[in-house]
Write a structure and sequence with these properties.
heterodimer; A: alpha/beta; 5-stranded parallel sheet; globular; B: 5-stranded mixed sheet; 2 helices; 5 strands; 20% helix; 21% strand
Chain lengths: 355, 84
Amino acid sequence: MNSQRYIRQTTLRDFGPKAQQKLQNARVLVIGLGGLGIPVLQYLNAMGVGTLGLIEQDIIEITNLQRQVLYGESDIGKNKLEVALQKLKDQNSTTNFKTYDTFLTRNNALEIIRDFDLVVDASDNFPTRYLVNDACVILKKPFVYGALHSFEGQVSVFNYDKGPTYRCLFPIMPSAEEIPNCNDNGVLGVIPGIIGNLQALEAVKVITGVGTVLSGQLLIFDGLSASMQKINFKSRPESYKITELQETYDAVNCFIVNDIDVNAFQRLRTTANIQVIDVRSSDEYENYHLSDTKNVPLSALEEHTEEINLKEEIYLLCQSGKRSQMAYQLLKERFPTASIFNVKGGLNHYTAQYS
Amino acid sequence: MNILLFGITKDIIGSSSLSMPVSNTLGVESPKTVGELKEYLGNTYPDLQKLSSLAIAVNNNYADDATVLNTYDEVALIPPVSGG
C-alpha cells in the first residue's frame, strides 16, 4: 500500500495507521447498487476498505440517474454490477472486489453474507431488509441500516456487539400495500447521498472502533427541516431467537405471477391490439402514459373490474412492476380463468428501452 | 403535547407535526398513555391502523403502549421506510 494514499486520514490522531490497517483487513458486503449503495461504495473504496462485496441484478434506467450518481447517460440499459465494478476499480485498483450477479434471496443469503465481517443494507424493499436482518442475526454479523422515504432517511447499526436488531425496532414486516417504495413514492435525489454517506461513516466506525457506533439508536434525518433526531431503543429478546430463515419473505412473490418482459410486450403492442391496464394513480397516468392503454388505479381496481374485458387477454402495467403484481394477484383470485399478464419491470423497464 | 410525524405517517396525516390538546377543553379527554394515543389517532386517521410496525418515541426514547404521556412530552411516530 502506498503510504501517501491515505495520509489525510492516517494523520488524524484518533484514526492513524492502526485504523487504516483495520480498514485494509475488513471485508464489507454492500447489498444493492442503488441510491444508497453507490455513496457507501464510493467512500469505502476511496478510504481503503480491503475487500468489498457487491450484489445487484438491476439494469441502469434513466429514472435512476437523478440519485444514482455513479452512472451516466451512456450506461443506460447496462448492468449496474458491471458498470459499478469498472468505475470502482478505476477509483481504487488495490481493492479486492467480490461480485454477485443476483438479488439476495433466502437461498443465497447465508452463503454470501457468511464470507464478510460487516454488511451494509442498501436495498430498496422490505423483504430484502428483513432477510438481511434475519441472516445477520443467524450469522452474528453486524449490519449498517439505511432507508429512505421522500425527503427523509433513517440510519442505524443493528446487531452490533449484542445491540438491538431491526426487528427490535420494527418487529413485523409491513405488507407492500402499506408503505410504497421509492419507485412508486419518489425520493429527492440528494437524500440517498446523505443517508448513504452516514452509512459509510458508521461502517468505518464499526470496522476501526473509532468513535461511538450508532447502535441502539435510530437516526432520523428530515431534509425539509434539516433536522436530525436520535431515538433510543432497546433489545427485544424474542428478536434474537431466529435460528433459520423464513420460508418466504415476500407474500407477493410466492404467488406465481405470469410475467411478460418489456421486449415481448412491445412486440405484441406493435403487432396486435392488446388490452393494457395501467394500474398507477390517475395523477401519474395523466402525467405520462403509453398510448392505447386504460387507467384503472390499483386502489379502485376491486370496485371497477367492469372496466376490464375479462374475455380478452389482460396486460397489467405500473411504474416498477410491483403494483401490477398486486393487481395480478387481486384479479387472479377473483377471476381464476382470466388470461392475465404482468409487464415485468413496468414503465421503468419499458421507457429504458423504448423511449 | 407535540407529535412529530415521519415517513408514511406524514403523508397519511398530511402534515409534519400535530399538536394535541392537553386538557379536555374541546370536550375530548386527551390520551394518557401511548396506547390511548394510538387508539385516538387510529380513529381520527384510519389509514394509520393499517401500519403493522409503527414505532412510537416519547422524548426521543422508544415507548410501549403502557408509557404514560405528560403535557410537555414530545412524541414521534416512526414507521419503517424501505427506499434505497
